[in-house]
Amino acid sequence: MKTLSRPLLVAAVCAAALVPLVALRAASYGAKTAPSTPASPVSLSFTGELTQGGWIRGVLPAGAQTLSINGTALPVTSDGSWFAAFDRDAGPQAVLRVSYRNGAIGEQRISVSPRAWQIENVNIARTPGGPSEAFMALRRPELARIDAARTLVTDAQGWRQHFIFPVKARISGRFGSQRVYRGEPAAYHSGLDLAGGAGTVFVAPADGVVILAAQAPFTLEGNLLMLDHGMGLNSAFLHCSQILVRQGEHVKQGQVIGRIGMTGRATGPHLHWSIKWHDARLDPLLFTGPMT
Fold first, then answer.
1. In Å, what is the CA distance from 253 to each residue of 37, 157, 179, 205, 256?
2. Cα angle vertex 22, ends 142, 7, to 5°?
3. What are the pLDDT digits (tens) for 29-81?
4. What is the CA radius of gyration of the chain?
5. What is the pLDDT at residue 126?
6. C-alpha angle with apex 70: 206 to 119, nearest 5 degrees?
7. Most CB within 10 Å of its CB: which of 56, 76, 241, 290?
8. DSSP letters of 189-258?
9. What contacts 56, CB < 8 A, 6 or more positions away?
């Protein structure tokens, strides 16, 4: 099975079972659409969570050949399906632009609703200074491995599915929450924390391909596991006590893939689950719905 990776791919990332998605070659994320004739209004069919940290998924109409969102080309599968998402800090509007085989151009504007994030104002000064050079000497290779894993293109189809929770547990940290120290905002929480007990197994929230399975703990993430769900969508699972799948392995929704722990920078056993679409950080609860 052939591997498709980009130039930043480092040798530490195994791609034994990674498969190219032909549609991504035709319209890779990041390719800007060329100027074209004025667009006519069009009504595209789609579903999703049209809000900050949310997503959108649809099928192109007959005769359509390309699609872009905010000027960036989207991959389209052979059956006309497509996927996109909205960053935590996305603006209030997105523009979908579709081109047809007869040369016509259609455009649809969609509203992206804002979120009321959990903000905690703290009346103390933020700790001055940044990470030490000694820490960054360890951190840079880890970040390179994470970035390289996210460049991998696989045949995963999990992006088509309704996601499930990797584990049913108390939610101890929510996506998007943030502390502000005397007016200076710190980084927001990039995922969902699930406070399961140490050693509790967790499962794949959707079909995917393992794109990173750390053999040794990372400085912050600890034992890090990453799944690609296809179309630029991926999940990361932090602080694992044990990873039960191998890099390059295809996994199915509901399959056991690891155990909860507190490796890396964690004050107690929990699973930190984050989702990204390319550079956009997304809210896992908008993929699963509320826990029942």
1. 43, 10, 34, 5, 9
2. 30
3. 444 444 546 788 888 999 999 999 999 999 999 999 999 999 999 999 999 99
4. 20
5. 86
6. 65
7. 76
8. P-SEEE-PPTT-EEE-SS-EEEEEE-SS-BTTTBEEEEEEEETTEEEEEEEESEE-S-TT-EE-TT-EEE
9. 46, 47, 48, 49, 50, 83, 84, 85, 86, 94, 110
Q: What is the mean pLDDT of residues 102-112?
A: 96
- Number of neighbouring beta carbons within 10 Å of residue 14: 17
Residue-level pLDDT at 37: 62
Six-digit token string for 258: 């690891």
* Cα(274)–Cα(286) distance, integer angstroms: 12
The residue that leads in pLDDT, 35 or 187, is 187
pLDDT over 70, % of the chain: 87
Q: Output the DSSP codes for 43-73.
A: --EEEEE-BTT-EEEEEPPTTEEEEEETTEE
| Domains (range + CATH), the chain | 31-111 (2.60.40), 119-288 (2.70.70.10)
